[in-house]
Each structure stands twice: as structure tokens, then as C-alpha cells.
Amino acid sequence: MFKVPPVPASRLPALLRAMPKAELHIHIEGSLEPELIFALAQRNGVPLPYASVEELRRAYAFTNLQSFLDIYYAGASVLLHEQDFYDMARAYLARAVADHVAHAEIFFDPQTHTARGVPIETVINGLHRACEDARTELGISATLILCFLRHLSEESAFETLEQAQPLLDKIVGVGLDSSEVGHPPEKFARVFARCRELGLHLVAHAGEEGPPAYIWSALDVLKVERIDHGVQAVHDALLMQRLAQDRIALTVCPLSNQKLQVFPNLADHNLGKLLDAGLAATVNSDDPAYFGGYINENFTQVFAATGLTARNAYQLAWNSFEASFASSADKRNWEHQLKEVFERCYEHDD
Ligand SMILES: [Zn+2]
Q1: Is the pLDDT of residue 202 over 90?
Q2: Cα(268)–Cα(345) distance, rounded to whole angstroms?
Q3: What are the residues whose beta carbon lies below 5 Å from ligand 1 (ion)?
Q4: Active site residues
């Protein structure tokens, strides 16, 4: 790997913002800004229990995963038509381009929408069209990962997979999200086995609030290729070894962890520990509209709070490309661009 010389602390935030990166943990419903929720509510004639954008923004003062999920599902209620899903994804992708995201693997929760009577093809076609248009119009690569809601049954996950079957060419993989504690990965063993047979990539949220045991079963029972969050792995030395040896990427979301009280003080975040242990950690935004920042905010704030270095920055961006489900050719191309941005940064040295 490229040997990264030190960068003065004053220049680090600019470098973090400018470096190309992949975003591997973004829930598209969690990118819905209050302004867009209001615009879509008006367009679709959906009444909202908030009088103004400001009032809705103030309601974002949740304190844990469950109270966040309650408002998250309320926000999603304005999404009814294919164009709504398109507009939501387009808004995120434009924001991601501004943060120098070269590639995004976007999570979506079909059950949140099908439960309200929105057909799954409305959801997938709208999101997929936004990804296709963004490639040509914005120059960003973007793919979709269908997530099963883990607080629902495995039977419901199977129904969702069945509905998605004719559209599987529009997604690259499946994931597992929503309330973690009490819903261990093994609850979804059979549906993940089926998805594996279908040739889909597999990821799962594990070890956000849940114990290391959930990470073990995500790996050994579900056979996932990446762990979403995974920060609780530090409590299990054997698991840390396994994650490092097998180069299992963790999609870490610092501002989400802070907001949901996993690390109430960002200075205590263990991202540096994960990197020091040789784990393929990455930085991502999770639900940026709700957690106070898109990917660059996550980078700059966690670096400022924990004193991570330029070498860590390079490693995190490189990990994000390596851990993506993009082609090898695309990965090499982005990693080359990453190296160029770092080299240019040193050319300005006196
Ligand atoms: Zn998440």
C-alpha cells in the first residue's frame, strides 16, 4: 500500500473531504430530509403530525435505536409513487457526489413500504432508475442492497424475497437491519441461505447494540461478507482475530453511534482500535438526515474527536473500495484516484 506521510492537523479535514471514498452503509429512507418529507407529503396529500419543517426537525431528538426507528417509519409514510423513491435517492446521490463518494451501496427497506400497500416494484424501480441516471448525469456509481427488517418474521422476509424475485437484476445483495437486540441473525438463517443460492451478496447489521455473539452468528450462520456496525467486536479477542484474518469489513457509522448512545462521547469511539487491530473498518453515515451528518461529517468529526491520522484516512478510504461489491477494475481505478489525491496534498508542502 501507498506509504502515507504525516499531514498537518490543520490540513486533515480538507483531505478527508476531498479524498474519493465508497459509502457502504446508508439507509436511503434515512436520507430523507425534513424539507423533502414536507414536499412529498404535499405532493401526495399525506397529512403529517408536524406543523412545519422546523417542528419535524426538533422531533429528531431521539435517545435510542427504538425511539429513532419510530420517527424513521413515520417519515417514510410520505413515499407512495415511483417518482418519490427516485427523488429520495437522487437527493442522496447528489449529496454523496458533493462529499466525493465515488461509489455507494444503498440499503432500502421494502417491508416498510409494502406494509403500507406500496408495491415492491414501485420501490425498486424508482431507486434503480435514480442509480442509473446518477451514473450518467452525476458520475457516481451506485447499487442497491435489499434489507430485511429483523423485528419482523423470517416468513415475512421470505415473502419479500418472493416479491423481489423478478427484480433481482436491479439489486446486488441483501442485508438485515432495524431493532437488533432480541432478534439474532440466526432467526434469518433459511432466508439468507436462499439468497446465497440466488447468487446475492450478503451483509447484516450485527454488534451495534447487540453482543459479539450476534457477529459470530452473522458470519457463521448467515455467512455474510461484511458486518454493518460491528463495533461491539472489541469485547471478544477471538472474534477480532477472525475479522482481521478473513478481512471482513466493518461498516462503522460514528455519528449514528454517538446519537444512539453507543458512544455518547465521540472521543471514546473505538474506530482507531479497530484499525490498529488490523480490521477492515470503513466510515459511513447510516441515516444521515437523522444523525446529524453525511459521510464527510462522519469523517471530520470522528477524526477531530479521536485524533486519527492521514494514514488512517487513507486506510479507511482504501478499505471502503476493497470491501465494496464493485468490479476489480473499478476498485483499482478508485484506489488510483485516492492515491493521486494524497500525492497532490503533499505537493503543496513547502
Ligand atoms: Zn444501519
Answers
A1: yes
A2: 29
A3: 286
A4: 208
Task: Give the C-alpha separation, 206 to 212, whole Å.
Answer: 8
Give me ligand 1 centre to Cα 177, in Å. Answer: 6
pLDDT surpassing 60 at residue 140: yes
Dist. CA 25–CA 159, nearest whole Å:
24
What is the rounded radius of gyration, in angstroms, for the C-alpha atoms of the chain? 19
d(CA 113, CA 119): 8
Query: Per the annotation, where are the binding residues for substrate?
Result: 287
pLDDT attached to residue 350: 46
Ligand 1 center–CA 252 separation, angstroms: 9
What average pLDDT score do residues 190-204 get? 98
CA 57 – CA 303 distance, rounded (Å): 26
**Range 126-145 average pLDDT:** 98
Residues 6+ apart with CB under 8 A from 228: 25, 175, 177, 203, 204, 205, 206, 208, 250, 251
pLDDT at residue 114, as a whole number? 97
What pLDDT score does 348 carry?
61
Instruction: Give me the residue label for grid cell 438485515.
Output: 176
| The model scores a pTM over 0.90 | yes
Identify the structural domains of the chain with CATH numbers, from first to last: 9-347 (3.20.20.140)
Residue 49 CB neighbour total at 10 angstroms = 9
* C-alpha distances out from residue 209 to 52, 122, 171, 188, 268, Å: 33, 32, 27, 18, 16
For the chain, the 3-state helix, strand and coil shares in percent, each to the nearest 5, are 55, 15, 30
Beta bridge partners of 103: 22, 141
pLDDT, tens digit, 9 for 90 and up, residues 288-305: 998 989 999 999 999 999
User: What's the 255 CA to ligand 1 centre distance in angstroms?
Assistant: 11
